[in-house]
Amino acid sequence: MTNPSRRQALTAGLAALGAGALAGCAGTGLEPCSGTQVPPTTETPVADGKQALERLMAGNARFVAAQDQDLDEGIARRVVVSKGQHPFATILGCVDSRVPIELVFDQGLGDLVVVRSAGGALDQSVTGSIEFGIAELHTPLLMVLGHQRCGALDATIKALDADQRTSHTKGLDYLVDTLAPAVRQVAGKPGDRLTNAVQANVALTLTKLRQSPVIGPLEKSGKLTLIGAYYELDTGKVTLH
To answer: Residue 217, Cβ neighbours under 10 Å: how many?
Structure first.
């Protein structure tokens, strides 16, 4: 967990960045520069994790139906969010180019904290980024999103079957080592092996995140909701675990 002095330094740095953004928009003549509040893209702020989840799932329903809302992502909106951010959810997902998380949930600039790694694999940087979204930006919802035909988990399955790592690079070997427990957990279970591994990895990731000294207490206090989810490439639909 980040100690108080480091945390204060990080917060001060972000405040300085925000001040720079305000200076940069001065004199542009755009009305949003004169305000002090940063409104959400299209809706009122959420009260809790339940409302945040409802908003995400409503957005995904629009995405599936190809009825995306007309989000304000023009110059005026960019100027508004340059002054600060008030996202309503933090989402950990995969780096797969077919899973653009803001689009999947039909959300706009400043609405989500999105953290991505291959297969949703956790390391200190990923965990720290998630903790930042929750502790510093106060998002009331944390979602771990797996997806259909995940290449990282498929590569892990193949590496374990061959009893070897995927390459001679430390980075890729680390991914295999990190994702391997989910693959081993579903060995011999009925159903599609890769789908089972993706869903097991989501569950294991949630378990690990609950051990965080930042995330665990917030969930227990009711200030944070954790949820696992699965994205279908074929349909665009997100289902909850």
So the answer is: 12
Query: Is 2's pLDDT higher than 50?
Result: no
Q: Which of 98, 52, 89 is nearest to 231 (CA)?
A: 98
Domain count, the chain: 1
Closest CA relative to residue 230, chosen from 109, 104, 121, 128: 104
Neighbouring-strand partners of residue 89: 112
Domain extent at residue 131 = 4-240
CATH assignment at residue 48: 3.40.1050.10
Give residue-wise pLDDT tens across range 183-226: 999 999 999 999 999 999 999 999 999 999 999 999 999 999 99
State both tokens at 62. 């629009």
Cα separation, 117 vs 146, whole angstroms: 11
Retrieve residue 71's tokens. Answer: 């989000």
- pTM of this prediction exceeds 0.85: no
Distance CA 167, CA 36 (A): 51
Per-residue pLDDT tens for 7-56?
444 444 433 333 343 344 444 343 434 343 444 555 578 999 999 999 99
